[in-house]
Amino acid sequence: MEDRFDCIIVGGGIAGLSAAMILARAEARFLLVERGEFCGAKNVSGGVLWGTDLARLVPEYWEDDTAFERFVNHRRLTLMDASSAFSLDFKSADFGVEPFMGITVLRARFDAWLAAKVQEAINAGANAEESLLATDILVDEILVEGGRVTGIRTGAESFHADCVIIAEGVNNLLTRQLGIEPAYVPADHVAVGVKEVIRIDEKRLADRFQLSGNSGLTNEFVGFASQGVEGGGFLYTNRDSISIGLVLAMADLREKRRKPYDLLNEFKSHPAVADMLAGGEVLEYSAHVVSTGNVDAVPSKLFGDGVLIAGEAAHLLLNSGKAIQGMDYAMRSGMLAAGTVLSARERGDYSREFLSAYQQAIEDSYLMKDMRGFHDAVGVFHSPTMYEKLPAILCDFGRQYFGIRNEPTRHAREMLLASVKKHASIWELAKLGYRASRSL
Questions:
Q1: Does residue 168 surpass a pLDDT of 50?
Q2: Distance CA 440, CA 40 (A)
Q3: Is 133 helix (H, G, I), strand (E, B) or coil?
Q4: Under 8 Å between Cβ of 290 and 312
Q5: What's the pTM?
Q6: What SS3 state is found at 90?
């Protein structure tokens, strides 16, 4: 095994594995290092992988029933107060056509599956013995010589490459070492994600959520879910379990001195949510730091001499309110990074000037176009009017509108106006509506 490669990839998550797949198919010599015992071992998160890039990496992946949990054909947005829930619900057979619009995954399983597909691609190539997925390895340092990244150091061993792709995730120890990012990420650029996986018998799950075959539901929650803390909740159906959790702004969580696990328990006890979880068994609890999707958190340069930054290490993520797009951003950025490395290899030029093509590719893709285009939407969905007052108004209106009493009934317009006056003002809603119309 050579200790010099065309590329070294740091991180065996979706960004790193996506880059590895592109390199493996091109028969490039690469080393991917992952600190977990296997790819996915350290990643306890899960959720929805949106878009169709997976079909580009693994054609007809849907024929392998171990690849994912369920495809998403049912979406729901719920605004809730302490006792009620008002939902916008959409279900479409169009979303059940391959390649699917979105699939739910459990990352420990999915990352391991994708790593196995990368290994198959390596084995099928002419340089099968010259590329390696190396797990249980912690990268201590990025090696730099004369201002150029030349490899990595792990313990007493050093490995060298023409280019290094850093896909280490949001902790960003290595990007900070290189000075690509400040010493600490500001608290308002990160959030705390807390999640439980709850086992529910597959048949009961299908009956409860009206699922057919391998179809699935995603449900986002605004309002009581975060109990006054900036953020929201989510619920996704897996094959025989539910993933449920909260994403909470770290700065607001710290200021209000609330504990994520306490908030999660209160969210789970809400009448609308408790009904969904009845009879379930908690299999797993996890908490981790995630990016908020604020475009201001993205480093000004995602490249340097001999180095590229991909995935959440670059804070590439979008939370526009209708979905959290992180895994698809990681996948596309990993693919673009690998494509840039292959172009550099063909030209024999790994300078920052040539590798800047990666930054342009990111800018030209939906990644930065959406992060910039929906930047204001992040502010809308994280405003107190959105996560406190609007849910209260809609739930109060819902109790009036859907309640039947043996007395004269007011018109819906009067009910809605009364709810607005009780919880906010017409002016506040007008401002929210104006901001939403411009940003969404």
A1: yes
A2: 34
A3: strand
A4: yes
A5: 0.93
A6: strand
